[in-house]
């Protein structure tokens, strides 16, 4: 049986009713937060 990975939604794609469960699924460890900044920095450098 194949496992299904959960789909990661961006904050702008989350509906108000889904917000609490979305926040619980986020990685608030220092490594997770650093990854968010790294991805955003790469996107900024890619398009500018």
From TrEMBL:
Domain of life from the UniProt record: Eukaryota
Protein name: ATP synthase subunit f, mitochondrial-like
Subcellular location as annotated: Mitochondrion membrane
Gene Ontology biological process terms from the UniProt entry: ATP biosynthetic process; proton transmembrane transport
Similarity-based family: Belongs to the ATPase F chain family.
Keyword terms: ATP synthesis, CF(0), Hydrogen ion transport, Ion transport, Membrane, Mitochondrion, Transport
Gene Ontology CC terms, in alphabetical order: mitochondrial membrane; proton-transporting ATP synthase complex
Organism: Neophocaena asiaeorientalis asiaeorientalis
Keyword presence, Membrane: yes
């Amino acid at each position: 049986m194949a496992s299904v990975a959960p789909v990661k939604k961006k904050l702008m794609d989350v509906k108000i009713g889904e917000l609490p469960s979305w926040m619980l699924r986020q990685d608030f460890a220092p490594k997770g937060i650093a990854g968010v900044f790294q991805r955003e920095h790469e996107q900024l450098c890619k398009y500018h």
